[in-house]
Design brief:
Layout (H helix, E strand, L loop, with lengths): L1 E9 L4 H14 L4 E7 L7 E9 L11 E6 L2 H6 L4 E10 L6 H5 L7 H8 L5 E5 L1 H8 L5 H12 L6 H11 L5 H13 L4
Parallel strand pairs: 1-4, 4-5, 5-6
Antiparallel strand pairs: 1-3, 2-3
Length: 195
């Protein structure tokens, strides 16, 4: 068994924490996990990616066109890593952009969500767009975007462990005062799609 997930976003979105939670759930299920992460130039706003490999794997980095899932916390960052997704794999994309200041300073434009999705469709038709910020606010805590994304991941992909195991990892890791909002955020992400 092998299951690869590439998580992408920008600093401050909880990309690394989301990867750690998936890894903890896998380990709790007795599944071998290897991860590799890359941080951008800045803590907040710089590009961040995490390669998460489960099962019969040794190397931490996912080879091109091998990831079962691309979990994108930011649209342009999702498109940046599309080459790692296997043909027909699953894309879960937060549709809320984090536009870098350099785009405005240099007179550039940020691509439309539709054009980003159109480019991704050259690799897969399985694209799930979600307004994770809105659902995090609905859950009562804007910092639960990553938990919303994990809920969607649990719903639309075939993770090699149960949804309850991932939810337990979240409950163990977040501060006690934030458990209720995170559980709600997870459920809102999960319920956003029917499979």
């Amino acid at each position: 068994m092998k299951f690869d997930i590439l998580i992408s976003g920008v600093g401050g979105q909880g990309v690394i924490l989301a990867g750690n939670l998936i890894a903890e759930a896998a380990l709790a299920s007795g599944i071998h996990v290897v991860t590799g992460e890359a941080h951008g130039m800045a803590q907040r706003g710089g590009s961040v990616s995490l390669h998460l490999r489960m099962g019969d794997v040794r190397a931490p980095l996912i080879p091109l066109r091998n990831a079962e899932v691309l979990l994108g916390f930011e649209p342009a960052e999702t498109l940046r890593y599309i080459e790692f997704l296997k043909p027909g794999g699953i894309v879960i994309m937060n549709e809320n952009p984090v536009i870098p200041p350099g785009v405005f300073q240099k007179g550039g434009t940020y691509p439309t969500i539709e054009s980003i999705e159109e480019n991704m469709r050259t690799v897969t038709q399985s694209i799930y767009r979600i307004n994770a910020e809105k659902l995090a606010m609905d859950a009562g805590n804007p910092l639960t975007v990553n938990t919303v994304m994990l809920g969607t991941l649990a719903r639309v992909s075939s993770l090699p462990f149960g949804t309850d195991t991932l939810l337990e990892a979240i409950k163990k890791r977040v501060p006690e005062k934030a458990i209720e909002a995170n559980v709600k955020a997870f459920q809102l992400g999960y319920d956003s799609f029917s499979v």
